[in-house]
Amino acid sequence: MTAGGNPAGGGKPEEARRIASILAGNVEEFHELIRPYERSVYVMALALLKVEADAEEVAQEALLKAFRNLKSFRAEARFGTWLISIALNEARSRLRRGTGVKLESLDEPEEAPGHISPALLRDWREIPSEALERLEVRAALQQAIAALPPIYKEVFLLREAQEMDIRETAEALGISAAAVKVRLHRARLMLQATLAPQLRRLNPGRRRFPWS
Amino acid sequence: MVIDCKHVWDHISGYLDGELSAEERAIVQKHLEHCEICSAILDSTRNILILTADERVFELPLDYSARLHARLDEEIRRLRA
Ligand SMILES: [Zn+2]
Predict the structure, then answer these.
(1) Mutant choice from B39, B44, B50 vs A, greatest count of A C-beta within 10 A
(2) How many beta carbons lie within 10 A of that of residue B25, not counting itself?
(3) B69 touching A, CB under 8 A?
(4) What contacts A128, CB < 8 A, 6 or more positions away?
């Protein structure tokens, strides 16, 4: 967190004012309140549900639920993490209601013992962000993330794609900061193991600047 | 102190997040200076994290936001009715 950011706990001051205003009756301000989080809520729902249409429905349900239950939002929490936890609960309960999706993957054992071995390479040629213009590069990343066990995927996405810090991630998931760190470490190494060899194949070494 | 590669792997995440103690950090850094395998693991992991943080990886469905706010409008209307 940068200087000038929020003190420990609590949300952003403008957000707190807006929430108070909505609770006082200016309900249309909820539109603006959720704008910064629309994307995160969708991405987290998609991470669990895997089907875009389901993820969109769950994202809508979660945000409407947040609207209806805004008075139960506790000011010492962050609004963003509160929304994410509602979305994850919605997504999980949809999985439980079961459209054939088995649940054991959600309740898998805590950290499996043993080390995760990364992919061993002699050198690494930097892959620039412009490579994401290529469908096969995006697809490789999406599939590798999707294939992570849920407990790792959730932590990974909150931390890396939503850029939450360790404490916010722990708060959104209702787990300890220590558990976040362990899962994050494992998720990162699992992704390195899967993706490094794939991305290297997609990153032709002959030309110096393949995407320029 | 000489450490092996596996020890460095256990610290990659902490190293990337700047969460190691000064002592651990120095040990890892020293190893990285002469181990090309661990250097490549670190570089590739860091590279993958930068790529996955990019918004292009997960695209929102077309008009997602418009549909969402339309539903919210409905809800608000219902509330006032
Ligand atoms: Zn090494």
Answers:
(1) B44
(2) 15
(3) yes
(4) A211
Residue B70 forms contact with A (CB below 8 Å): no
Quote the ligand 1 centre to B37 CA distance (angstroms): 6
pLDDT, tens digit, for every residue of A120-158? 998 999 999 999 999 999 999 999 999 999 899 999 999
Q: What SS3 class is residue A101?
A: coil
Specify the 3-state DSSP secondary structure of A116. coil
Contact A185 B12 (CB under 8 A): yes
Domains defined along chain A, listed by start: 13-99 (1.10.1740.10), 124-202 (1.10.10.10)
Contacts of B38 (CB under 8 A, 6+ apart): B5, B8, B9, B31, B32
Residues of chain A short of pLDDT 70, as ranges, are 1-11, 99-114, 204-212
Structural contact between residues B60 and A55, judged by C-beta atoms closer than 8 angstroms: no
Cβ–Cβ below 8 Å for B36 and A185? no
